[in-house]
Amino acid sequence: MKKVQLIMDSHALDLAITRITHQILERNRDLSRLGVVGMQTRGVYLARRIAKKLNELEKRKLTAGVLDVTFYRDDYRKTLKKPKAQVTDIPFDINGMNVVLVDDVLFTGRTVRAALDALTDFGRPKTIQLAVIIDRGNRELPIQADYTGTVLKTLPNQAVKLAMQEHDGEDSIWLVELEKGD
Length: 182
Hints:
This protein is an alpha/beta fold. The protein has one domain (2-75, 84-177): Rossmann fold. Helices cover 27% and strands 28% of the residues. It contains 4 helices and 8 strands. A 5-stranded parallel β-sheet has the order 3-2-4-5-6. Helix 1 (10-27) packs across helix 2 (42-58). The longest helix has 18 residues, at 10-27.
């Protein structure tokens, strides 16, 4: 994998998160019935940042949940040699809530489909809204984000890589060229 083009630096990423936060507020005025849940791994960091901005803007104490969808994926037996489950921790009752599901990159829609299945195992939310930083198109399922940082059409030999300070030591989004075997 080779970094080819910087899509967002740390400032642009923060602006996108801020914009998404404001859009969430516009649609969800009653924060007492709002929950934010990030998908492992980088969606968790994005969800925490969104929750922090919501708290700062509205003087609330929202805590972002964490969702692992490993065993809900339709390909985990085929493509993941040794699936590694991660933490799921949703510290609030999702029944009747407006849940904002946060992921880093929306591509085929299959991971989001898995997340929808996983979330409904915890209850029945009033709504599930999807927030992503990058929508790269090429959907295989009819899934669409409610909140998007940017849309970036990619080729089959390209991928989008999000680096987060908390996990990778920097904030940036890169378009990368995939090499055979990646």
